[in-house]
Design a protein that fits this description.
Layout lengths: L1 H16 L3 H4 L9 E5 L5 E2 L1 H6 L3 H4 L8 E13 L2 E7 L6 H9 L6 E9 L9 E9 L11 H11 L14 E8 L5 E6 L10 H12 L7 E2 L5 E2 L1 E8 L16
Parallel strand pairs: 2-6
Antiparallel strand pairs: 1-11, 3-4, 3-5, 5-6, 7-8, 7-11, 9-10
Amino acid sequence: MKNLQNKLFTLLFIVLTFPNLGAAQGNSPAQLRFEVNRIIPYVLITKEALNEANRLTDLDPHYKPSWIKEFISVEILTTYQGEMLKSVSKNDILSQEQKDRMNRADAGTSISVKVKYIPENTLTQNDPKEFDFTFTVDPENKAEYPGGQQQLIKYLQEKAIDKIPATSFTNYDLLTVKFTISEEGAIINAHIFGSEYQTSKDEKIDKLLLETIQNMPSWKPAAYADGTKVKQEFVLTVGNMESCVINLLNIQRAE
C-alpha cells in the first residue's frame, strides 16, 4: 500500500510540475498554410457587366447616390485607336455615347470617370465637389502558371514550403510576397509586402520564399479575347490566413 501511495504521489508531482507533457507528445506541428491569389483592382468589371451598365453604380459599387444632392456633370474618358475621347452626361445615368465609347475602348486601356456634384448635406455653404475613379475591363483569360493551379501549388510546396518548419509561424504571423505577371508572362516586381511589420522573423525564410517566386517559370499571361496581353498582380500568403493583413491585400480567396 505504501509503495502504491508513493507511486501515486510521484505521478501527481510529475503532472503538476510538467502540465504540458501529455499534450506535447503525439501532437505533430500543424501543416504550414499557404495560398496564391490574384490581387483584385479596386474597381473590377467584366466585359459582360460593362455591356449591361446603365448607371454609375454599375461601374463602381463603392459609389453611393446618397452622397449627391445635385449632379453638375459626369465625364468619362476612354481611348479608341490610340485617341483619347471625352463624353459627358448630366447625371449618373450613362448616356448612349458614354456606353458605346466604353465598350469600344482599346483593350487594356484605362477608363476614367470624373463626377462633379453638389453634396447632400446641411451646410449653409454647399460647395461643389468632385470624385473620380479609374478602371480597366477585366481580361477574359487570366494569367496562369504552366499546368495550372495544382502545378503551382506543387512547385511552391517542393521548392519552399516543405523546407520551412510549420513552427516558424505562430499566432497571427503571415508573410506575403507580391508579384506581377508581365505581358510576356515573366515574374516581375516580386517583393515582401509590408516588410517593415510583416516577415517570418527569419531572414532565411524570407529569402527562400522571395527567391522561389522570382525563379518560377514563365506564366501564360492574361489576355483579352482579341489577343491583347496585360499585366496581372498576385500574392503568395504563408502562415495564418486569419491575420488582419489579409484585409490589406484586396484579394478574392477561394472558398
